[in-house]
Amino acid sequence: MATTSDIRKGLCINYKNDIYKIIEFLHVKPGKGPAFVRTKLRSLTTGKVIENTFSAGHKLDDIRVESRQYQYLYKDEEFYHFMQTDDYSQIRLTESILDYPGLMKEGEMVTIVMNAEDHMPLSVEMPANVVLEVTHTEPGVRGNTATNATKPAIVETGAEINVPLFINEGDKIRIETENGTYKERVKE
Questions:
Q1: Number of C-alpha atoms within 13 angstroms, CB side, residue 22?
Q2: Which residues are registered as beta bridge partners of 55?
Q3: Residue 119, class by beta-carbon neighbours within 10 Å (0-12 exposed, 13-18 middle, 19+ buried)?
Q4: Are residues 121 and 157 in the same domain?
Q5: What CATH number does residue 20 fall under?
Q6: Pick from 139, 136, 140, 128: nearest CA to 184
Q7: Which residues constitute the domain of residue 159?
């Protein structure tokens, strides 16, 4: 059993007869009244995101998990295929378990979090950022730099990212996987 003081991003809990992963949380101590923790939870079975508030000291039924390194191989019609690099065993997962599937490049190393009791995959954690090549973007309009202007760009995995106007086709960019946003251009 865990309490609200143990809440952290990525913690998996049993809540309302389902398994949820904490994706955001905020400890709140108002000037008047008891402290509480505001959370955003994602169901690992349906992918639905809910918001919930736990009072301070509330007991949580946490799930013991194991993290394993896997390499992303490929995607077919309905599954994403991964291989464990130690013993070359493969697993396939649906898109609902993945946070940002559009940012995964073949060969990328990811961490798959599994339930320690039944070895069912719960979530896939990507590295903090990935480097991808821009395959298509419109040229930036010269002189339109009074504000932080951005334009859409399609990267090699097919995902669409908003990038600054100076980014061109063929540039490699670093993308934060947590929120799918442009971070910087990568010099080679």
A1: 24
A2: 36
A3: exposed
A4: no
A5: 2.30.30.30
A6: 128
A7: 129-186
